[in-house]
């Protein structure tokens, strides 16, 4: 068999590599798009639940920051989120899952925030709290499998975690989530909203239709009164884990559309804005 000279072999390899690279879609450099996406987790979990959403957004060229809330009180969680907003580059799209929706509702009035994204999340109005929203849950809503508080901290019953919180998540992942819960401070449930950001900022809401933590009718009610752009998905409460692509697409839509609004954000009439209740 006749062998090719070394230099010809090298040339063939280079050309082949170039052809392969041309056939593969280019991946954006992380952070090459203006603005920052700030992800805020909810109760019983931490920021690691955003991992797949983070990877998709970063791959698509967005700068992403994941807040690690102490989840001890609303005030402390809002403070942690405001620090992330202050450190972020450019305008911010603020994203909250579950109880994280309460946090972004209070923290989102920051001038740097251009839009809010609620992911199967609480979106309380002025004077409301998690406790008040849960107390007014739709009839027939199942009781949450929350264990009695220990030292003022709450956990979900590990044996019921998957069915309630993460029914469509891979069993081994759901078990890990159950066994790595971050205790939720009972004081956080009582924290009241003083200035709901969705009254002055455009909002998006992803409704998880198979959610057993926040009933879908309650999600729809909160989305409607916020005048949010709504999308539905067949998913559990842990939609950010089971459907990261859908979650990322809603966030990217908010990022793009809020950028198009520019200086008009906050100036145009809000479709669901009401006079503040005293």
TrEMBL record:
Domain of life of the native organism: Bacteria
Coiled coil regions, renumbered to chain: none
Keywords: Signal
One Pfam family in the UniProt entry: Abhydrolase_6
Leader peptide range in chain numbering: 1-28
Domain AB hydrolase-1: 37-249
PANTHER family on file: AB HYDROLASE-1 DOMAIN-CONTAINING PROTEIN-RELATED (PTHR37017), ESTERASE_LIPASE_THIOESTERASE DOMAIN-CONTAINING PROTEIN (PTHR37017:SF11)
Annotated protein name in UniProt: AB hydrolase-1 domain-containing protein
């Amino acid at each position: 068999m006749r062998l090719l000279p070394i230099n010809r072999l090298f040339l063939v390899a280079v050309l082949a590599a170039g052809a392969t690279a041309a056939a593969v879609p280019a991946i954006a450099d992380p952070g090459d798009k203006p603005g920052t996406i700030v992800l805020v987790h909810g109760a019983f979990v931490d920021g690691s639940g955003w991992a797949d959403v983070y990877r998709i957004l970063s791959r698509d060229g967005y700068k992403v920051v994941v807040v690690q809330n102490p989840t001890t009180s609303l005030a402390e969680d809002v403070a942690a989120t405001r620090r992330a907003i202050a450190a972020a580059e450019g305008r911010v799209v603020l994203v909250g899952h579950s109880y994280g929706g309460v946090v972004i509702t209070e923290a989102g009035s920051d001038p740097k925030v251009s839009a809010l994204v609620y992911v199967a999340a609480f979106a309380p109005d002025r004077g409301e709290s998690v406790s008040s929203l849960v107390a007014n849950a739709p009839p027939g809503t199942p009781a949450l499998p929350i264990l009695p508080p220990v030292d003022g901290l709450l956990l979900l019953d590990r044996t019921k975690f998957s069915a309630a919180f993460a029914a469509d998540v891979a069993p081994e992942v759901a078990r890990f989530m159950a066994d790595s819960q971050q205790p939720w401070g009972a004081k956080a449930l009582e924290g009241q909203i003083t200035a709901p950001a969705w009254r002055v900022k455009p909002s998006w809401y992803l409704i998880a239709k198979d959610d057993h933590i926040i009933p879908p009718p309650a999600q729809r009610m909160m989305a409607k009164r916020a005048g949010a752009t709504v999308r539905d998905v067949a998913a559990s409460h842990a939609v950010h884990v089971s459907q990261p692509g859908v979650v990322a697409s809603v966030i990217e839509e908010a990022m793009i559309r809020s950028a198009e609004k520019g200086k008009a954000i906050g100036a145009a009439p809000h479709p669901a804005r009401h006079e503040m209740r005293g």
